[in-house]
């Protein structure tokens, strides 16, 4: 069990445990009162639980163990969250949100790095670290309301500038709103806002 602010979060087997990247996003959320919120890749549910203090939250994950874990943690913290299993936007087809949150799988990886376990999905970004990030960016606008926002976590190992450039080309006002430096990488929160 870990504590974050007033929340208690159960860490579960086969689920990405909250780490520096999780806390960086949780500490810098831009959720407004009454927002319709989508969190992709919820893991233990920590970010979704924090977001649920202000917004109506839907949380998704491809990992069935993460779904079970997030349901448990939502109960422990009396958070009212809709939790759905599926890949990226599949579980919310046709729905639109005010803000979409995603701690992306951003680590460059090759087959030798992978264990073959479901937990790989939490960090496996493919060869350049961008496989999931680029799939997310391709569809994110279809799920945002007018004036919608996104907040994603990314690493300097997977070309932050490219993500910001792509977002700007899609019409977002995009910038880094939080960052933390580690010995081999920088982790950032990129916030994008549609006009």
Polypeptide structure, described:
By secondary structure, the chain is of the alpha/beta class. The chain has one domain: Rossmann fold. The protein is 24% helix and 30% strand. It has five helices and nine strands, in the order E-E-H-E-H-E-H-E-E-H-E-H-E-E. It has helices at residues 20-27, 46-51, 64-76, 131-140, 160-169, and strands at residues 2-4, 7-9, 36-40, 56-61, 81-85, 97-103, 144-155, 173-181, 186-193. The strands form two sheets. The chain has a seven-stranded mixed β-sheet with strand order 5-4-3-6-7-9-8, sandwiched between helices. Strand 8 and strand 9 form a beta hairpin. It is globular, with a radius of gyration of 15 Å. It starts with a strand and ends with a strand. The model has no long low-confidence stretch (mean pLDDT 94).
Comma- or semicolon-separated keywords:
globular, Rossmann fold, 195 residues, two-stranded antiparallel ribbon, alpha/beta
The major β-sheet equals: 7 strands, mixed
What is the CATH third-level topology name?
Rossmann fold
Question: How helical, in percent, are the residues?
Answer: 10-25%
Which shape, going by the Cα principal axes? Answer: globular
Give me the secondary-structure category: alpha/beta
Strand content: 25-35%
Walk across the major sheet and give the strand order: 5-4-3-6-7-9-8
Please identify, by name, the CATH architecture: 3-Layer(aba) Sandwich
Give the helix/strand layout.
Layout: E1 2-4, E2 7-9, H1 20-27, E3 36-40, H2 46-51, E4 56-61, H3 64-76, E5 81-85, E6 97-103, H4 131-140, E7 144-155, H5 160-169, E8 173-181, E9 186-193
Parallel strand pairs: 3-4, 3-6, 4-5, 6-7
Antiparallel strand pairs: 1-2, 7-9, 8-9
GO biological process, one term: methylation
Domain Methyltransferase small: 22-167
InterPro entries: Euk-Arch_PrmC-MTase, PrmC-related, SAM-dependent_MTases_sf, Small_mtfrase_dom
